[in-house]
Amino acid sequence: MKELNKKLKRPPTSNDDRNLTMAAIRFFGSWNEAKKKAKLRLFYGRYQRWSRELVLKRLKELSRELKRSPTSRDDPNLTMAAVRFFGSWNKAKKKAKLEIYRIGRQKWSKELVLKRLKELSRERKRSPTSRDDHNLKMAAVRLFGSWNKAKKKAKLELCKPGRKPFFGGKK
């Protein structure tokens, strides 16, 4: 289980390896019991019954596991629960006495949008889609009028309206 954790660079879920899941249930009684024994982060799912106390407890656990103050992207379900019970992610972190990151807004220019589009294209080995980076998409629309106009200016392949981009493999 720890090897899978390293390979995936995240705690494994029961869907990642059926044989491992069956062995974990057979030897430990449940998937989460096996994860506890392996000292891996447990999944607090969408249907977890959250409370203010559980949100604070989970924030502190996550902080210890990550060896840093968690961000809202580390656990989306926890983020939703924190916002529900505390009004915002940062208010929950403040209540849990964790460091709050202050990140300034990106100052976008046309040149920066084009540069980032080209970087994304190289990183992903395909033409970027508007789903790849929400902030980039919003800046592109604001500065160029549309996502495709920005991609055209960057000399990247355009997506046809209403069609999903092709990501390789056989058509």
Structure notes:
With 171 residues, this protein is mainly α. The chain folds into three domains: 1-43, no CATH class; 44-103, no CATH class; 110-153. The protein has nine helices and no strands. The protein is extended, with a radius of gyration of 21 Å.
Concise account of the structure shown:
By secondary structure, the protein is mainly alpha-helical.
Question: What descriptors fit this protein?
Answer:
mainly alpha; 171 residues; 9 helices; 3 domains
Task: Give the topology, please.
Elements: H1 2-8, H2 18-28, H3 31-37, H4 52-66, H5 76-86, H6 89-95, H7 110-124, H8 134-144, H9 147-153
Question: What gross morphology would you assign?
Answer: extended
Number of domains: 3
Task: State the major sheet.
Answer: none
- Whole-number average pLDDT? 83
Structural class: mainly alpha
Strand/helix succession: HHHHHHHHH
Strand content: under 5%
Number of helices: 9
Q: Could you estimate the helical fraction of the residues in percent?
A: 40-55%
N→C terminal distance: 36 Å
Radius of gyration: 21 Å
Please provide the count of β strands.
0
